[in-house]
Specification:
Blueprint (H helix, E strand, L loop, with lengths): L1 H22 L14 H21 L8 H16 L9 E5 L6 E4 L3 E5 L13 H16 L2 H25 L6 H37 L5 H17 L11 H31 L15
Parallel strand pairs: 1-3
Antiparallel strand pairs: 2-3
Helix pairs in contact: 1-5, 3-4, 4-6, 4-7, 5-6, 6-8, 7-8
Length: about 290
């Protein structure tokens, strides 16, 4: 029993060291472990974008063929990125001409938009404000560094499993080492999906403020989830192990944040109107210093 207590204390201490190291990572966000630098985020994202482009081209999917739509997307990404907590990232957007209803983000600033998002029958967005809600959500994933935080968490779980097994062996309990390792990995498999749900909720919150500060109506985000909520509820509630919050949960969270978002939106409109009256004076980035 004393050996077991000492073992648990040592593992807890090692876990604390790992978490504190991650929290000290620059740009790592308010919570979570991140072993990656910002430059590594950028390099990883560029590699992921290149791989995705190659896969799309191999499948015969056209890329960036609608110049008008692409320019509008680039303007939107630049506008929202400028008010984010990481305005200096090399944000890019790539448009895939496929009926997939989706948008995605890679670390470091790469955003991918699939044309099915605009489909009038099955798509998600109906106007620029709703599109801005989707783009702001993806930029929030990037600035919160969710991908590399998740990769770091997976590395931490693997490292701790090996450390735990080694400590048991060192304490003279080699026969239980594999069981301990398995226990750590199972715990990680249960914890990581919950971490993903937390990421989605964080991206919703942060993205709502980003779009508002960029001068897009935050009520559009609620409109998206209202439509999605109706579809989801007709299909039944998902498992507790789903990697995304339910649409109702997301709608309720955004509804609570709407008053603050509307204030930020109104300030952004005032600043843009003032800038339009003084074209020689560059417009300030609305709220960039106070991003959540």
């Amino acid at each position: 029993m004393k050996i077991l207590r000492r073992f648990c204390a040592r593992v807890a201490w090692l876990l604390l060291v790992v978490v504190m190291a991650g929290c000290a990572t620059p740009g790592g966000g308010a919570r979570g472990v991140n072993f990656f630098s910002i430059q590594q985020d950028i390099e990883l994202g560029q590699a992921a974008l290149q791989a995705n482009n190659e896969a799309m081209e191999a499948a015969g999917v056209p890329i960036n063929q609608d110049r008008v739509r692409l320019i509008r997307l680039e303007y939107m990404v630049e506008r929202i990125g400028a008010v984010s907590r990481m305005p200096d990232l090399p944000y890019t957007v790539t448009l895939y001409h496929t009926n997939m209803v989706n948008a995605a983000a890679a670390p470091g600033g790469a955003i991918m938009v699939f044309e099915g998002l605009y489909d009038p029958e099955v798509g998600l967005v109906q106007n620029d404000d709703e599109l801005a809600a989707v783009i702001a959500h993806e930029i929030a994933h990037i600035t919160s560094r969710h991908t590399t935080r998740r990769l770091s968490a997976m590395q931490s779980a693997s490292i701790l499993a090996e450390i735990a097994g080694a400590l048991v062996v060192g304490a003279g309990h080699a026969s239980t080492a594999d069981l301990v390792r398995t226990g750590f990995m199972v715990a990680g498999a249960v914890w990581l999906p919950a971490y993903s749900r937390a990421d989605e909720a964080e991206a919703d919150r942060v993205g709502l403020m980003y779009m508002a500060r960029a001068g897009y109506d935050p009520r559009a985000a609620l409109a998206i989830w209202e439509r999605a909520m109706e579809k989801q509820e007709s299909m039944g509630r998902g498992s507790i192990f789903d990697t995304h919050p339910t649409y109702r949960d997301r709608h309720v969270q955004l509804q609570r944040m709407l008053p603050a978002a509307m204030q930020a939106y109104e300030r952004a409109l005032e600043e843009r109107a003032a800038a339009a009256l003084s074209p020689a004076k560059p417009m300030a980035r609305s709220g960039s210093a106070a991003a959540p």
